[in-house]
Amino acid sequence: MGLRKDFLWGGATAANQCEGGYNKGGRGLANVDVVPIGEDRFPIIAGKQKMFDFDDEHFYPAKEAIDMYDHYKEDIALFGEMGFKTYRLSIAWSRIFPMGDEAEPNEEGLQFYEDLFKECHKYGIEPLVTITHFDCPMHLIEKYGAWRSREMIGFYENLCNVIFRRYKGLVKYWLTFNEINMILHAPFMGAGLYFEEGENEEQAKYQAAHHELVASAIATRIAHEVDPENQVGCMLAAGHYYPYSCKPEDVFKAQEADRENYFFIDVQSRGEYPAYALKKLEREGVTIQMEDGDLELLKENTVDFISFSYYSSRVVSTDPKVNETTSGNIFASVKNPYLEVSEWGWQIDPLGLRTTMNSLYDRYQKPLFIVENGLGAIDEPDENGYVADDYRIDYLAAHLQAMKDAVELDGVDLMGYTSWGCIDLVSAGTGEMKKRYGFIYVDRDNEGNGTLARSKKKSFDWYKKVIASNGEDLSV
Ligand code: P53
């Protein structure tokens, strides 16, 4: 028993949260560059407040981030030292196509990732590549309105054609859209959507979602054509919804809340729009414009595996008196009285991971891949940059135990586990550096001060031992 012999242990990052070098190597400007830290961040990522370029009043953490653009060799060496079998990263679209709609790609951007992938292979690390992790070239937003436009499908297809061919033999695991359901919760960050006054937001979001779903199916088709070795996954911001009580209305509301997110994966994995979604969209007056052939494309090009992020379970209630919600999370949730919360108010629920894995496996019966999980916490380094992060080890050990239970006791087929932010990076939700997830500490603060020096935390050696024992030894 136990985990697969070839279990893919590793860590995950996203280009915009770690690379920096926002204008290096011919890279173009993207939505993720212009989201600042501070109180305006949320309305901006939600598409309610317009920020299409830098201004002088704000600090934009993604511009330099942790400068992995210039440190990737050192960072990948540290991943290798921990024994990573895989490293999940994303490609910055605007490094490959700076505007997004050019005919020819930017060679310097292509070369950057080629070098990076080769560096991974030096250590026996298999890259797991997210094609878009929240990023969209600004030019595509300004000229076409981002994913609300059908033309985006063609631009994304060009990107896929280029990268699948160029990286054939170097990359075989691909994810099409990071947390595709984020389009509903943070539409500017998730899909470049900024809403004009009076626009029907639901209509725009679901139309954009349709374009992403078609683009994802096309990507899957091309990936398989270019190299039969390629395996493509979807990516869901997962987290099972619990009813606050056993009141039937609460139970039904929890099912509806789950379906709002499953909708995307139902299309990507089963290849068709689920009946409940069609009915709901019809009731809400949302009409999705489709073209001939879209439904066939979706049906014929479903994903090979189901990947997802898991940080927390969620709770819903129909009782207006139950209104205490958790803070600090894009996914609003009723507070669960049985759970502890992180310093950012995220509820900590290892068993919820097992429940979530079972729900996904029951529903799709395809291999699962946990591509994000972890604890965002404040670290206090000593003068050598060492952090005794037992709280992080506790969180991860409990989640890995729940993950193993899902595999060993429930029979879920699991390909791998990549913990989020294996090296400290910029938070997507808040733009902070202070919210750290890594095994590797990076000397940089919320204002951009610091030497960018990397140092190992206590969890570094712990995770190395976990990987060496293929998850058998979770002890400190
Ligand atoms: P941060 C919210 C809820 C679930 C997943 O989040 C989320 C978010 C965004 O805040 O996003 C994923 O950095 C995402 C990563 C992100 C990570 O969760 O806000 O894929 O880019 O960094 C953690 O703590």
TrEMBL record:
SUPFAM superfamilies according to UniProt: (Trans)glycosidases
Active site: E372 (nucleophile)
A Pfam family assignment: Glyco_hydro_1
Keywords carried by this UniProt record: Glycosidase, Hydrolase
Assigned protein family: Belongs to the glycosyl hydrolase 1 family.
Protein name listed in UniProt: 6-phospho-beta-glucosidase
